[in-house]
Amino acid sequence: FNEVFSNEQSKYFSSKNFWIKYLLMDTNDKKRHSKDFVGVVTNKRLGSAVLRNRARRKLVAALQQVEMNDGIYVFGITRSKLKYIDLKEEVSEFFESINNDSRENNNKVD
Known about the structure:
This protein is of the alpha+beta class. It has four helices and four strands; from the N terminus they run αββαβαβα.
């Protein structure tokens, strides 16, 4: 995940429930990495291990419901008392915006 944080092409997004640092892969990178990489970071300020793990599980469940672009994603959870519905909505909005941006970029190239 150092590749995400040290790369100048990586991007940052934040919402009220999480932040994300991500790096989308181009065709050359896809040859090196055959699948997406997702990391979830929580801080002890969120609460006990039970609360942190519950927040992680909710985020992972929300991620399983969306179509992700090929890339490396590092999520940081900012709130421990997450409502799954809100989190799922924010995650899907985030990935929809990425998909729309990548489609626009592909149309510009063609």
